[in-house]
Design goal:
By secondary structure, the chain is α+β, with helices and mostly antiparallel strands. It contains five helices and four strands; from the N terminus they run H-H-E-H-E-E-E-H-H.
């Protein structure tokens, strides 16, 4: 083999090797391109899914906010109506003092509140006799007198077999109506003012008011 043939053979071998390298590079490049496209598609799907989740979450957030706002509005309306109903009830006390309530004069109502408070005190007392004083507002002074207190004391003593004595205190309270009865010399009292009675009954009053104002009736 001459020098020319040797050079040609080397060139052919070099060309073959170069083609082999180029072919491998093309395959590698093609694979890289496909992998890049797959990665791009994956990122694209992830982005779309994330945006869709954001959309669902935003819708759910709006619905939750709307429901919360609706409950708040309902609560505000209930509170406003309950406050008005309780205010109206307190305002009617003035009418009760003048006209009475369900056939009972305001003096009768006061007597009932005094008796109820006195019985509560003696029920929790171990003493055989109890000196109790009745505290009222200046406005209610004309509805309570010594004769009334003597009558209440006699009724309690006869019914309960005790020796309770009620007297009218010179102290006055600020109240729309009702009484405070307390034991002399002992730290015990029952607050039977209308404000406190309504506060003690607030839960049941609230339920009754809500039922009256907001309960729907089927037709």
């Amino acid at each position: 083999m001459g020098a020319k043939e040797i050079v040609e053979k080397i060139k052919d071998e070099a060309n073959a090797e170069c083609e082999k390298i180029m072919s491998g590079a093309r395959e590698t490049g093609k694979k890289k391109v496909e992998e890049s496209r797959a990665e791009i598609e994956l990122q694209k799907r992830r982005f779309i899914e994330a945006e869709e989740r954001k959309g669902v979450e935003e819708k759910e957030r709006i619905v939750r906010a709307a429901r919360l706002n609706a409950r708040k509005l309902k609560w505000d309306v209930e509170e406003e109506m309950i406050a008005k109903a309780l205010e109206e009830a307190m305002n009617r006390i003035k009418e009760v003092k003048t006209d009475g309530f369900k056939g009972n004069s305001y003096s009768d109502i006061m007597a009932g509140l005094i008796k109820d408070a006195a019985i509560s005190i003696i029920a929790g007392s171990s003493a055989g006799g109890d000196e109790l004083e009745v505290i009222i507002s200046e406005e209610d002074a004309s509805f309570v007198n010594k004769k009334m207190l003597k009558k209440i004391s006699d009724e309690i003593n006869q019914d309960r077999g005790v020796n309770v004595r009620l007297s009218l205190s010179g102290e006055r309270i600020k109240s729309a109506g009702g009484v405070i009865v307390r034991g002399k010399g002992v730290e015990i009292e029952v607050n039977n003012t209308f404000e406190q009675r309504m506060a003690r009954l607030s839960t049941s009053l609230r339920e009754d008011i809500v039922k009256t104002l907001f309960m729907t009736r089927s037709v």
